[in-house]
Amino acid sequence: MPTPHSPGAPATPALVIRQLHKHYGSHRALSGVDLTVGAGEVYGLLGPNGAGKTTLMKALLGLQRPTSGAIEILGRPVGRESLAQVGALIEVPGLWPTLTGDETMRVHARLRGVPEEWIEPALRLVSMTESRGRRVKEYSLGMRWRLGIAVALLARPRLIVLDEPTNGLDPVGIREMRGIIRSLAAEGAAVLIASHQLAEVAQVCDRVQVLVAGRTRYEGSLDGLARDGDVEAGFFRLLETADAGVG
């Protein structure tokens, strides 16, 4: 599915986050997080539950106001114009159970102001064309997740934000989702995914950031995260040192 990215366009990062803080009273959900994602890149946010991944995503989508810091999407602050270039799926997809998959896509096409001709490629990309006539309440969790991703891709965004993109998928679906993510990046979109599934992130991401208790504990390639050649061992060692207050 083509994206509006133009090969001749200036190399403005799709997403830049500088010194992002989010406090809830005395609780610091995010403490000085920096992040940059370029066009054609798959960037992974890793960390245990409660690390701040979803809080960061909600802030960049304008769903939560950060305490301080700056967020730019394609060189512009978070707002209507910049968010029009973003497709996102975080937490549970918000779908109408009595509508069919096709009706759901048509509603979102009208809301986003995109041609209905764009519906078919988005459904095809997530293997939902054969199920488009069924009501959402009849869908499995994996099918609802696929439809939610199709909605996120409908407007052909330049930045795609996905929270746990393999949630509810069987092994075949997980493999297909990896291919979808990589194909979107190959077409010029920037993809930011959050997960606590290290093995899945390792399959698709160019760079990762590990968040623990709202702080960046690592940022770079997965190879750099490895300990004696073992990425998983390096990741858990990082969590252990963070829990012990080291670094």
UniProtKB/TrEMBL annotation:
Keywords: ATP-binding, Nucleotide-binding, Transport. It holds the Pfam family ABC_tran. InterPro entries: AAA+_ATPase, ABC_transporter-like_ATP-bd, P-loop_NTPase. Residues 15-238 form the ABC transporter domain. PROSITE patterns: ABC_TRANSPORTER_2. Coiled coil: none annotated. GO terms for molecular function: ATP binding; ATP hydrolysis activity. The keyword Ribosomal protein does not apply. Belongs to the ABC transporter superfamily. This is Lantibiotic ABC transporter ATP-binding protein.
